Amino acid sequence: MSTPQPSVSIVVPVRNEADNIAPLIAEIGAALDGRWAYEIIYVNDGSTDATGERFAAIMKQRSNLRQLRHARSGGQSAAVRSGVRVARGEIVATLDGDGQNNPAFLPDLIAAVEKSARVGLAAGQRVGRKDTGFKKFQSRVANGVRNAILKDGTRDTGCGLKAFRRDVFLMLPYFDGLHRFLPALVRREGYEIAYVDVIDRPRHSGVSNYGFFDRLWIGIMDLAGVWWLIRRKKPTPEVTEVNA
């Protein structure tokens, strides 16, 4: 690529979000232009609408845009992982592609990670959520159960607004649903978590394409698996190379 080496990569997982692409990219640019060298990586997770075509048209106007495409939908965690793996920035920030996550909060999240080498993840915590009452009830139950078992100190792991160190993310065990357990798994690696309050808003258009956390049995299995991973973690050895 001919664009300068970015220090920050923005990863946006999308499926069938054609009408939300242009407004969100404009908002990301307004939040980050002139502050960081950055790239935007859209991961088109098997969309069947005009998502790919709309993004390709915008790519002709902005040199820092990249698009990955999954041949078939692999889910939100898979899309985030695909984006992080090809990201060129040392810090990666994520947000949902439906417009509910306001890019204006990206600078605060990125700055929180830059501030200390001990911070591995800055997690957005939604206030004033615009979801339905039932979805908010699901969130409270899921977050309450998760926090009671994992004790990760996070009230909202479902917020798509996050920033983290790329190398820290890539050392985590991968599984479907990983993005909902990032605080617990980043703590497992010995890093601290920073929290940033973010204001939720309605999506620009369309309907939700990714399930929340409503597959109860799968959620319970994931929770049990992460609990096991935390319990089995041994202290990371301090390693030094001995030269002759």
Features:
36% helix, alpha/beta, 244 residues, seven-stranded mixed sheet
Q: Kindly provide the radius of gyration, computed on alpha-carbon positions and rounded to a whole number of angstroms.
A: 18 Å
Helix content: 25-40%
Contiguous runs where pLDDT drops below 50 for at least 5 residues = 212-217
Strand content: 15-25%
Structural class: alpha/beta
Mean pLDDT: 86
C-alpha termini separation: 41 Å
| H and E string | EHEHEHEHEHEHHEH
What's the shape?
globular
User: Can you list the strand order of the major beta sheet?
Assistant: 3-2-1-4-6-5-7
- Secondary structure: number of strands: 7
Number of helices: 8
* Biggest sheet overview: 7 strands, mixed
Q: How would you characterize the overall build of this protein?
A:
The chain has 244 residues and is of the alpha/beta class. Helix content is 36%, strand content 19%. The radius of gyration is 18 Å and the shape is globular. The termini are far apart. Residues 212-217 have low confidence and may be disordered.
Brief characterization of the structure:
The chain has 244 residues and is an alpha/beta fold.
Topology overview:
Blueprint: E1 8-14, H1 21-32, E2 38-45, H2 51-59, E3 65-70, H3 76-86, E4 91-94, H4 106-115, E5 119-127, H5 133-150, E6 162-165, H6 166-170, H7 182-188, E7 192-199, H8 216-232
Parallel strand pairs: 1-2, 1-4, 2-3, 5-7
Antiparallel strand pairs: 4-6, 5-6
